[in-house]
Specification:
The protein is α/β, with parallel strands linked by helices. The chain has 2 domains: about 200 residues, 2-enoyl-CoA Hydratase, Chain A, domain 1; about 45 residues, Lyase 2-enoyl-coa Hydratase, Chain  A, domain 2, CATH 1.10.12. The chain has 11 helices and 10 strands. The strands form 2 sheets. The chain has a 6-stranded mixed β-sheet, with helices on both faces. A hairpin with a 2-residue loop joins strand 1 and strand 2. The two termini are about 20 Å apart.
Length: about 260
């Protein structure tokens, strides 16, 4: 997978795609060009069987993503603002529903849309210099790319309301304490830790992992009985796969399985 738009760098390391938001001079703020570049890359990855995990990070050491590009926003008429919000909300839903795990490697500032992008990911690993927050109310707007919905589902209603109402930023340690991120590490180890997690995920069966992600995400939005039915149907999909038989054979033969996603 080659580099796409200059605002987004894309690399492949074996079965792991690394997408790097590449506007370091603007703290990797999201503009329309970046939205379109990410959208195209996510669409490509969705149907690429060679990619099993995605890591999203930001270029440079200062920022993962400082949210929407407010300089661009200030020049937009109202209709264009509506288009931007609609586009970014749909994009983050596409990231969330991607049929393979997404890891956000959060380095530095992740504010507004930056935190919302991390919330749309499955797993969040933050460097010790990370600063996260949904700061929109301080600009007299609200989180518009899923923050009001994903944050309370992740960390609870009360804490989410506190952070959204105040627009307060949290550091890496507090983010870990409240469950906003899964793991924290020193800045120079961030990509190593993200890659370590990605490679561990790659050891599992890709169809099974995709179905597990679907069962968790879809099931959490329903009652328990419906969720159990979703899990059951997701399990059935794995039964006739070649990978399932490979997993059993490898276990019995005491060797590492070789999964093909079939």
């Amino acid at each position: 997978m080659a580099n796409t738009e200059s605002v987004l760098l894309s690399e492949t390391h074996e079965q792991v795609a690394v997408l790097t938001l590449n506007r370091p001079d603007a703290m990797n703020a999201v503009n329309f060009d970046m939205l379109n570049a990410i959208k195209a890359e996510v669409a490509s990855i969705r149907f690429n069987p060679d990619i099993r995990v995605v890591i999203i990070t930001g270029a440079g050491e200062k920022a993962f993503c400082a949210g929407a590009d407010l300089k661009e926003r200030s020049t937009m008429p109202e209709l264009r603002v509506r288009e931007f919000i609609y586009t970014i909300r749909r994009l983050f839903s596409d990231i969330e529903s991607l049929n393979k795990p997404v890891i956000a490697a959060v380095n530095g500032f992740a504010l507004g849309g930056g935190t919302e992008m991390a919330l749309a990911s499955d797993i969040r690993i933050a460097s010790m210099n990370a600063s996260m927050g949904l700061t929109e109310t301080r600009l007299a707007i609200i989180p518009g790319a899923g923050g009001t919905q994903r944050l309370p589902r992740l960390i609870g209603r009360g804490k989410a309301k506190e952070l959204i109402f105040t627009g307060r930023r949290v550091d890496a340690r507090e983010a870990l304490d409240i469950g906003l991120v899964n793991q924290i590490c020193e800045p120079n180890l961030l990509m190593d830790e993200a890659m370590k997690m990605a490679r561990m995920i790659c050891e599992g069966g890709p169809i099974a992992i995709g179905q597990a992600k679907y069962a968790i995400d879809a099931g959490l939005e329903t009652d328990l009985n419906t969720g159990l039915a979703i899990e059951s149907n997701a399990y059935w999909i794995t039964i006739p796969t070649k990978d399932r038989m490979e997993g059993i054979s490898a276990f019995l033969e005491k060797r590492k399985p070789v999964y093909e996603g079939k």
